[in-house]
Specification:
52% helix; globular; single chain; mainly alpha
């Protein structure tokens, strides 16, 4: 499942950092905190690995 926006990819990277133990969870806010709680490490790796080249800044609703 690739990221659908740059913001989503960035949040996944932050949540992945917590899962790996590189960053304390207290530094996360909003979507990245929710991602860290609800997603597996593998799912976060897939989102964070998405190329940002052609992604929009925010997902259009």
């Amino acid at each position: 499942m690739p990221a659908q926006s740059k913001a989503q990819q960035k949040a996944a990277g932050a949540a992945l950092s917590v899962k790996r133990g590189d960053t304390p969870k207290s530094q996360l806010k909003g979507a990245s905190r929710e991602m860290a709680d609800s997603m597996s490490k593998k799912q976060l790796e897939e989102l964070a690995a998405t190329s940002r080249k052609k992604l929009p800044n925010k997902k259009k609703s």
